[in-house]
Design goal:
The chain is mostly helical and 66 residues long. The protein is built from two helices and no strands. The protein has one domain.
């Protein structure tokens, strides 16, 4: 395994772990603030856009490389 492959795998695993942790934080924020259904939806949509942006960026990079 080359250094580049290791770095790519490590980045994906690290960012994936951080995304899962961020989803957990958003869930706790919605639960502890008694946001209700609409408030929870707003929290997940607004904060989840950053996650979606990272995923879209990765997909676009894969498409360009192919």
């Amino acid at each position: 395994m080359s250094v580049e492959q290791f770095e790519t795998i490590s980045l994906n695993l690290g960012v994936g772990g951080l995304v899962l942790y961020m989803l957990f934080i958003m869930y706790r924020l919605a639960r502890e603030s008694n946001a209700g259904r609409f408030g929870t939806l707003v929290i997940f949509l607004s904060l989840g856009l950053g996650i979606a942006g990272f995923v879209v960026k990765s997909v676009i990079q894969m498409i360009i490389e192919v």
